[in-house]
Amino acid sequence: MRKIKIVAAFLILMLFVIVHLISPNFLPEIFELLSHGDIVETADYIRGYGSMAVVFSFLLTLFVNALGFPPAIIFSTANTLIFGIFWGIVISVAAETVGVTISFLLLRFFFREQAAQIISKSKFLSKIDHYSGEKGFVIMLIARMVPYVPSALLNAVGALSSLSLRDYFISSLIGKFPSTGIEAIIGHDAILQEKDPTRIIVVIIFAIILIGWAWYYEKKLKSQ
Fold first, then answer.
1. How many secondary structure helices (H) and strands (E) does the chain include?
2. What is the per-residue pLDDT across 1-56, written as a single tens digit (0 to 9) for each?
3. Is 92:76 a contact under the CB 8 Å cutoff?
4. Is residue 95 part of a domain?
5. pLDDT in tens, 20-34
């Protein structure tokens, strides 16, 4: 397994090398853009890809969420400025969900075995790990719904717990709609100086409905 992990890490590194060889300026431009964290600058950069802006934005948002840095709000807000509120949020949620799922898989592949060994030596950690498998869906769903919670933290917690891939993916996909919606709308309205609270209220109501659905989903699973 150790050799497989080394090969996997080497292949990931080679992917970056190949991208750099194909387009030497691309990675430096991206990392400079990420270091600035400027929403308007990010939106202008994405627009520069013209008809491919949607694809590029999706991949860039995916990459950032897989990496866990910088904050996803920069890209979700930029997407609303480019594609509008509705499609900007849809694109962002889809890309973010794929990104955090990739992060989950990589972290679990490289570090879950070590985490399991540590957990097995502690009754307290073993109970928490068991609880994460049973209640992990609802916990992750609610955590994903909370705006501004660092994505990297939730990725790591999910990957090192007993939460199943299915529950992680579904809870992240559903949970990201309200949190991403709130973050993107606040950022969008702040930049464009809009003050209508209607959209935020709708998203909050949607979040409450989702929490109710999560409770029902968990009860249904228990009854099976």
1. 10, 0
2. 666 767 767 777 787 778 767 778 877 887 887 777 788 898 998 998 898 999 99
3. yes
4. yes
5. 677 788 778 878 877
pTM (predicted TM-score): 0.78
Q: 48 lies in a domain?
A: yes
| Domain-located, residue 12 | no
Q: How many domains does the chain have?
A: 1
Per the structure block, which two tokens stand in for 163?
A: 């939460």
User: Looking at beta carbons, which pairs linking 157-161 to residues 24 or more positions away fall under 8 Å?
Assistant: 158/104, 159/103, 159/104, 159/105, 159/106, 159/107, 159/108, 159/111, 159/112, 160/107, 160/108, 160/111, 160/112, 160/115, 161/129, 161/132, 161/133, 161/136
The radius of gyration computed from the CA coordinates of the chain, to the nearest angstrom, equals 19
- The range of the structural domain enclosing residue 61 comes to 37-223
| Token digits of residue 42 | 């990010």
- The three-class DSSP label of residue 183 is helix
